[in-house]
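task queued by scheduler; priority normal; single chain, no ligands, no partner chains; default sampling; output format set to structure tokens
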Amino acid sequence: MVLQGCSHSAAKPPATPPSAESSALPAADGGLAAAPAGSASPTAADPCTIFPADNVWHADISKLPVHRDSAAWVAGIGAAAHAHPDFGAGLIDGAPFGIPVTAVPAGQAKVKVTFGYAGESDPGPYPIPKNARIEGGPNAGGDRHVIIQDSAACKAYELFDAHPNADGSWKAGSGAVYDLRGNALRKAGWTSADAAGLPILPGLARADEAAAGRIDHAIRFTAPKTRKSYVWPARHAASDSTDASLPPMGARFRLKSSVDISKFPPQARAVAQALKTYGAILADNGSPWYFSGTQDDKWSNDQLNSLKSLKGSDFEAVDSSLLMIDPNSARCRP
């Protein structure tokens, strides 16, 4: 069997605590203006990519064998449950939805961040501007992720349950820093800003990618119940259950090749094709088959709604362990 894996030709772009849209640059009026997000191919405008092309997030899994526990895991998440794009444009119930990414310029001032789970968080300071966007908006509950993309330093800074303080510092449940030029994973057993101990930024579907017709990475998603276990490249579990019918954090799924996506509108088709080629990585506990993307007005909610026709039974788990070179690295086999 021929296994397709990671491309090695170009550079590209974790809780018990925790259960980026097109990037934004400071605008002339002090607000946040949209800017292209990184992918596996550097550009003159943005030489920093979101992890190298040989990173597991960019692995082509379309030819990987189906995992022996696929049927049980799909049932454990919900075979009849419909997929849901947990991102888009505008407001839902008065709040923005999707995970925003704040891009900062070179030399962005770093500020103090205090953590509820300091033992598993990367210490600050972090380059977080006062107007950094928070998932769900400034008054949101929930995960309140803050994702900072510093292309000049080629790093991502991610916070879970982030709250600004009056003096410009921040407090958060947990936080992680990623060198976007490398393939390092977090320490085994550590959380991040995500339950699985994984980075969030590389798993977000982005409107600019969809507009270009190609999303070149796996997409982050959630499941209602998971097992007290994690598989590579995840580093952390967030469950007390030992039920083998439940998927572990880090489990990778793909949309079956037999699913017809030819009539999907362009944006939905780009996301669905990514789910076929690169799949989805289980990263957090949440609603079944909720796929993550950026908060971005360039999304068309009408187009994305086509993804809701997909059901859990349209997906299958794959054996991504075949891509692993080193359990402590996200670099994967070509």
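post-processing summary
- The chain has one domain: 23-323.
- Residues 23-323 form one domain.
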